[in-house]
Amino acid sequence: MKRNGKLVWGVVLLVLMSVFPVNLAEADAGGGKKAVIMYSSENGKVEENQKVLDGMISRYTTDISYVEANSVEAEDLEEATHLFYYGKVEERLHEETVELFADFDGVKTIIGYNADQLSSQLDHVDTSLQEAVEGAYEADNEDNAVEFESQAMFPTDPSESAEILLYGTNESQENPLFFIEDDIYYYAAPNLDSMHAVMFAKEMSGIFNVEKEEGHPGYLRLEDVHPLADAEQVQEIADYLKSENIPYMIAVIPIYTDPETGREYRFSDNKKLTSVLQEMQDDGASIVLHGYTHQFRSSETGEGFEFWDVENNMPIYHGENEEVNPKTEEDFESPEEFEAYNQENLDYERAYIEDRIESGIDELAKYELYPLAFEAPHYTMSQNGYEVLSDYFSTYVGQVQMSDENWEIMRPIPTVGQPTYLHGMTLYPETMGYVQPDEPDAVDMMMKNAEEYQFTDGGVTSAFYHPYLGLDGLIEVVEGMKQIEGIEWIDLKETDSQVVTDKVEIRADGGEIDVNKDRIALYTSGFSYPLYFLNNTVEAMVRLIAIIGGLAVIIFFFYIFRNRSQANKS
């Protein structure tokens, strides 16, 4: 592991970045591709289905913009190479919208409702009915098929000139689900949740005219490792994973807060565990910051929510003990006052998140544990929160909350990408789930999920596991994942991941970790580490004294033995 105490390089880099900001959209691997998502939704706003589409597109380009269908203007489509219309709801499209879609000379894709308004050759799509689809297969490769729980699709009857890409099937029939007609890609379903996202992603390489990706990126993440975790249990898992020679991730919580007493436990309180985690980091693991305390109010670390007030189902706009009284626009005399109120909430949340993120990164770095990515506790965080997070991290792992109205609105993205709502962070999605202690078929269910995501070229197969469940369950998960055909284990140390605070800069560097940190500022930011360092120093001195004392005793007995031998000879 590379460590460099000089902070000068990092400061210079940050200054240069502020003067000459890097726009990922301009430097992305999309090769000049620009995508526009034109949408019809219930409230005229971007919601989770459009965000899933955004996430899948971001695998091919990060130059993505949104426009409401009946508000689109010619300027919105300038320089665009790909136009996606997502009809989540039925809506009468304006004549100007229809004309702009018809005149667009790039690649056009339609999802869901209102296709007949954009192309007369798609009037065979019957959006008044929805049929069950329980499986799918590629039109040009029937052996490449998948089965899943029932989803909904529209009945279709494309012309003979249409190119069928995917068929949707159920027990009694099959229907064209994804096809090209009138030079338009059409996907015959109103939703992109669950398996529909997997099936849609399957054909996106054709939409962007790139080679299909071979293999399936995958990762295993050990979850909720905090200072009170059992060091011996974690050591046993560490030894096993080292013997398997696979990279993996550890989601680490720096502070454990006792819900009864409020006492905070740090890694200085569990030196054995700290040593084990350092060893794991050297032997193939990548550390993922999993919150600072993983709790809010009096909830238990690992069980509570940290970046979302789950009791009121809202972002953290208030202190733990403050009375919560959300206001609406009707509570204010003017729109300006309401806007100022919203901004005050966002500013409060930003300060709260910044404090937690900086404290978490710095706390781990004190003990030479260097996070390369972030995972929000219970995957919950507001949209503003992701923007704040992107100031510190370039990599996010897990699933993404896609609404500020309800924390439970989250969707897995099938592939790795850089969704616009993550503000430049690369997303490594979690897709397989985890071992639920009370579910006897948990691993079989996880492997079924993996099978579904394997249907997509480049579909991610990733899972997490709680170490407190013991080694046997982990072995079962790893053995199952090793059977995934084409799995390519993700090693965050081999990515471009980087993490930055005022005190420390961490970069993945060709399989190692490059660290620049202000040691004085870092180690004097609290009392826990100096005491930890002092205690370690004292213990080292005691061990040294013990060794010296032991040597003295050995020498003493050696001289006694030698003198007696000489006396006997005399």
Note down, in words, how this protein is organized.
- The protein is built from 15 helices and 25 strands.
- With 570 residues, it is of the alpha/beta class.
- The strands form six sheets. Strands 3-2-4-5-10-9-8-6-7 form a nine-stranded mixed β-sheet, covered by helices on one side. Strands 11, 12, 15, 16, 21 and 22 form a six-stranded parallel β-sheet that branches. A four-stranded mixed β-sheet has the order 1-25-24-23, covered by helices on one side.
- The N terminus is likely disordered.
User: CATH class of the largest domain, anyone?
Assistant: Alpha Beta
Can you give the helix content as a percent range?
25-40%
Strand content is 15-25%
User: What is the rounded distance between the termini?
Assistant: 60 Å
Radius of gyration: 28 Å
- Strand-pairing-aware structural class: alpha/beta
Shape: globular
* Strand order, sheet with most strands: 3-2-4-5-10-9-8-6-7
Largest sheet: 9 strands, mixed
Number of domains: 3
Going by CATH, the architecture of the largest domain would be Alpha-Beta Barrel
The CATH homologous superfamily name of the largest domain equals Glycoside hydrolase/deacetylase
| Overall mean pLDDT | 90
Low-confidence stretches: 2-29
Number of strands: 25
CATH third-tier fold name of the largest domain: TIM Barrel
**H/I helix tally:** 15
InterPro entries: DUF2334, Glyco_hydro/deAcase_b/a-brl
Keywords: Membrane, Signal, Transmembrane, Transmembrane helix
Pfam family, one: DUF2334
Transmembrane segments: 540-561
